[in-house]
Design a protein that fits this description.
The chain folds into two domains: 132 residues, Penicillin-binding protein 2a (Domain 2), CATH 3.90.1310; 359 residues, 3-Layer(aba) Sandwich (Beta-lactamase). The strands form seven sheets. Strands 2, 3, 4, 5, 10 and 18 form a six-stranded mixed sheet that branches. About 1% of the residues have low confidence. The protein is α+β, with helices and mostly antiparallel strands. It is built from 21 helices and 22 strands. β13 and β14 form a beta hairpin.
């Protein structure tokens, strides 16, 4: 019996010793090796302030400021430190509805971590708040900068900055809730250069949340690194003039320096003032612009895919010469159009048409026959393979693919593959079904940027530099190797001069006489693209001067009729402005500036 109690005593004593041992070990661990609670206590006595860097500035090609930064302030709250306060007074100071403020406050889950509750407070409201901040325990402010734009132009070129969403945060750990980043335009394409690097400042605070100084004399602080400045290729005066010419018109204009690929002007119209999408009114203004039926946020220059109309005859002329299905001496008949059986493609010419006049007079019948010769070329075993060869030429011109420019959201346009038509025709090719592409209609879609690039290719007699919008980045020797390389099309250089001669006659004695400019040899081509949704689009491409071209341009004016009526004079005015820095035809300028084509019958 005694042995039984003795065993119980041993067991109980052992259990007590084990429990005491656990407590002793745990107490030792808490007091000596583990500083978790020490850090927690320090965190409760410190405030981590993110130091937001200023974004890099944006300049035009001549050093004129396009985008800069101005200071704003965020209001943060630590819910654990909040005390009762006059919410009505607080909301009046920061300029927010009480209902909206309480909704924001209720959404904050963490009681210990500082959370932004009011963003982008102006300096005036910040000053009022700072005077009364002692009344609002748990609230404090931090400084940041937001974008501001020096001129109300180039909105779709510059783009805009907005708050990151959860997807961006998940994909890029650099960003935290409340951060801002580039959403479109240059702001997006060069986000990493513009954003700089965030810093951190750790402050000690007392039990009343009052700042007492830097934590450990700033040992763990880091400074914010300002973003890099960017010089664009845009000529701000040319851009402003181009936007004025395109005002009250729907369409696009792109001007390129052929020798470099630098974009001198890029206009999409209608547009908007870029300052509408900054600050606290950005969200409201964004929804207004987004719902605008004229789509000012849509960048037509790089995202709209138009049929090129008769401007495309230039490309087919060059391919026809290269494939030797025609020569510069080829004469083809035009009897009011191209006829095959019951098929009739109308043309306003008649009689025999030579190569130069086919461009000068824009003969549909001539290019329908050229295109059919390309598709029936006996060098190839089938029409499908001949079509594939033709399409490969287009790809070299940058048609049907992205140009790999530095503008975000660029579209590749439309040029269907051989396989698409194999399926469509059930393997039995019918070239006549595609003949509308001879004159830039049918299943073709080309962006205005691509058309300007095609024009630059002709101006350069066979090559181009990838069009780009940035000329220089602060502290960097290069903007990227791809922008300095020459990209050659597979057309022999000797085929370009006769095409250029025809384009010169288009302006001096052809379909674009309204673009004629004494003293400057403009080479151009009009286009009138059929529009199934209404009135035809007015199109014009041109470069000037003929020798050593300085500018290549494409102009699209939607629902405006013939290319020579509106697009051609717009292009010639811009060319004159760029080359001469003056306008010699005020009556032409007035007609364009005063025209309102937005409400024309479609």
């Amino acid at each position: 019996m005694e042995s039984k109690y003795s065993n119980r005593k041993i067991i109980i004593s052992g259990f007590v010793i084990l429990i005491l041992s656990i407590f002793i070990v745990r107490l030792f661990y808490l007091q000596v090796p583990d500083n978790h609670y020490k850090r927690s206590a320090e965190n409760n006595a410190t405030r981590h302030m993110t130091q937001y860097p200023s974004r890099g500035l944006i300049f035009d090609r001549n050093g004129e400021l396009l985008a800069y930064n101005k200071p704003v302030f965020d209001v943060l709250v630590v819910k654990r430190e909040m005390e009762d306060f006059d919410t009505t007074d607080f909301c009046k100071i920061v300029g927010i509805e009480k209902k909206e403020f309480l909704k924001k406050l209720n959404k904050i889950k963490s009681r210990f971590k500082p959370q932004i509750i009011i963003q982008l407070l102006s300096y005036e409201r910040y000053s009022l708040l700072e005077e009364k901040l002692y009344k609002f325990k748990g609230f404090y402010t931090q400084t940041r900068t937001i974008r501001a734009y020096a001129k109300p132009i180039a909105a779709n070129v510059l783009g805009y900055v907005g708050e990151v969403n959860q997807k961006i945060i998940d994909e890029q750990p650099y960003y935290k809730s409340g951060d801002y980043f580039g959403i479109s335009g240059i702001e997006k394409s060069y986000e990493q250069e513009f954003r700089g690097k965030k810093g951190i400042k750790i402050l000690t605070v007392d039990v009343h949340n009052r700042i007492k100084g830097s934590y450990k004399d700033g040992k763990y602080d880091s400074i914010a690194i300002v973003g890099l400045n960017v010089t664009t290729t845009i000529d701000v005066e040319l851009q402003a003039y181009a936007e004025a010419l395109m005002k009250n018109k729907k369409g696009s204009l792109v001007a390129i320096e052929p020798s470099t690929g630098e974009i001198l002007s890029l206009v999409t119209s209608p547009s908007y003032n870029p300052n509408l999408l900054v600050g606290r009114k950005r969200t409201k203004n964004y929804h207004i612009l987004k719902n605008d039926k004229e789509k000012p946020l849509f960048n037509r220059a790089i995202r709209a895919s138009y049929p090129p109309g008769s401007t495309f005859k230039i490309v087919n002329a060059l391919i026809g010469l290269q494939e030797k299905v025609i020569t510069t001496k080829t004469v083809l008949p035009c009897n009011g159009g191209y006829r095959v059986g019951s098929f009739h493609q109308y043309c306003h010419h008649g009689g025999a048409v030579n190569f130069i006049y086919s461009i000068q007079g824009s003969c549909n019948a001539y290019y329908s026959q050229v295109f059919m010769r390309i598709l029936k070329d006996n060098k190839f075993d089938s029409t499908g393979l001949a079509y594939k060869n033709w399409r490969n030429h287009l790809l070299k011109f940058g048609i049907g693919r992205k140009l790999n420019t530095d503008l975000s959201y660029e579209r590749k346009g439309i040029v269907y593959t051989k396989e698409h038509y194999d399926k469509y025709f059930n393997g039995r090719w019918r070239p006549l079904r595609l003949v509308s592409m001879a004159i830039g209609q049918g299943e073709l879609g080309i962006t205005p940027l691509q058309m300007a690039n095609i024009t630059a290719i002709v101006a350069n007699k066979g090559y181009y530099h990838i069009p780009h919008i940035v000329k220089k980045i602060q502290g960097k020797d290069s903007i990227g190797a791809r922008f300095y390389e020459k990209n050659y099309v597979d057309i022999a250089p000797e085929y370009f001069p006769p095409v250029i001669d025809g384009m010169e006659l288009v302006v001096s004695a052809g379909t674009a006489r309204r673009a004629y400019l004494p003293g400057i040899s403009i080479c151009g081509k009009t286009g009138t693209a059929e529009n199934p949704h209404g009135k035809d689009h007015s199109i014009f491409i041109a470069f000037a001067p003929k020798e050593n071209p300085k500018i290549a341009i494409s102009v699209y004016v939607e629902n405006a009729g013939y290319g020579g009526t509106w697009a051609a004079p717009i292009a010639s005015l811009l060319i004159e402005k760029y080359i001469n820095d003056s306008i010699s035809r005020p009556y032409v300028e007035k007609r364009i500036l005063d025209a309102n084509l937005l409400n024309v019958k479609k």
